[in-house]
Amino acid sequence: MADGDTTDMVRELYEGCYRRLVGQLFAICGDLGEAEDAVQEAFVRAVEKPRRFAQLDNPEAWLRTVALNAVRRRYRRATRFHGLFARAGLPEDTMTGLSADRVALVDALRQLPYEQREAIVLHHIVDLPVREIAVQLRVPEGTVKARLSRGRAGLAPLIHEFADDAEEVNHV
Asked: Is 17 helix (H, G, I), strand (E, B) or coil?
């Protein structure tokens, strides 16, 4: 495939899945700007190595993985400095232009540990099966299932949709 063809493929992917990827990453990180930056970084990496990108079986999954890795790196850095921001009394980001339901969901997800939040978003929002999540996160399937179970239990008191799931797990 010629570099021009790859550029066209990247352009089509950008137009077709950019918003979806940003929404998925936003649900994980809770920061729209951060999600946009991570997805844009993934697309930049795709353009930097067009021949390698053209050989991928699932380019959207690759883009999501690269963007997730970018979010993870930034999350680790941010947690190191979180105490500094809290002590300085800096205000948290406000989310404008989003539905009340989406804001409530992101607020609830923010209360979960990062690994649980990531599993919940990939399974319930991205709609990936446990096996694919395990491959993307490079963890055993059992770990993904445990994160999903704990994440649902953590969300249950915050979001009614997960309360039913948590009750089913507890009664089984």
From this structure: helix
Q: If you count them, how many residues does the chain have?
A: 172
Mean local confidence (pLDDT), 160-169: 52
For the cut 80, the answer to whether the pLDDT of residue 153 exceeds it is: yes
Question: What does the alpha-carbon distance between residue 46 and residue 60 come to, in Å, rounded to a whole number?
Answer: 11
**Number of other CB atoms surrounding residue 71 within 10 Å:** 24
Q: Tokens for 77, please give them.
A: 């850095």
Vertex 20: Cα angle to 19 and 21 (nearest 5): 90
The stretch 58-76 carries a mean pLDDT of 88
Name the residue among 150, 148, 113, 155 with its Cα closest to residue 134. Answer: 148
Q: What end-to-end distance do the CA atoms of the chain give, in Å?
A: 52
In the chain, the amino acid numbered 44 is V
Note the pTM of the prediction, 2 decimals: 0.58
